[in-house]
C-alpha cells in the first residue's frame, strides 16, 4: 500500500486504508466499506465453524463478480489474519463465506498464479 496505494487489479478493487478526496477513480476505502461487510458476515453467519461476529472482519477489496474480500481479525497479530472472501454467486447448498489461511498479498499471488485447487472467487 505504501508503494502503489489503492486501485485495481483487473476487476478486483483494492480498498484504500482511509478516504481521500483527490483520486480520479476511488476504489473505496476500508472505513466506508466496513459496516456493509460486517453486515454480510452477521447476516450469513460467516465461515462455517468460526465463532465470531461481524466486528471480527475487516474488508480490503471487492470486485470480480461483486465478491467482497476481507480478513478475519481474531488473532492479536495482524500478520496472522486469514483472508475471508464473501461470494455473491454460489451453488445450491454452498456457503457464501470461505477462509484462506494466508494474508492478502499471498492470497493475491496464489490467485494470480492459479495455485488454489479452484478459483476462490468463482471465476
Structure description:
The protein has 123 residues and is of the alpha+beta class. Helices cover 20% and strands 19% of the residues. The chain contains two helices and five strands; from the N terminus they run ββαβββα. It has helices at 30-44, 104-112, and strands at 7-9, 12-14, 57-63, 67-72, 83-86. Strands 1-2-3-4-5 form a five-stranded antiparallel beta sheet. The longest helix is centred in the first third of the chain and has 15 residues, at 30-44.
Q: Which shape, going by the Cα principal axes?
A: globular
Mean pLDDT: 84
Low-confidence stretches: none
Strand content: 15-25%
Q: Kindly report how far apart the N and C termini lie.
A: 25 Å
Any idea what the radius of gyration is?
14 Å
- Largest beta-sheet details: 5 strands, antiparallel
The quaternary state of the protein chains shown equals single chain
> Strand order, biggest sheet?
1-2-3-4-5
> Portion of residues in helices?
10-25%
Structural class: alpha+beta
Count of DSSP helices? Answer: 2
Helix-strand pattern, N to C?
A: EEHEEEH
Number of strands: 5
Descriptive key words:
single chain; 123 residues; alpha+beta; 5-stranded antiparallel beta sheet; 19% strand; globular
Walk me through the topology.
Blueprint: E1 7-9, E2 12-14, H1 30-44, E3 57-63, E4 67-72, E5 83-86, H2 104-112
Antiparallel strand pairs: 1-2, 2-3, 3-4, 4-5
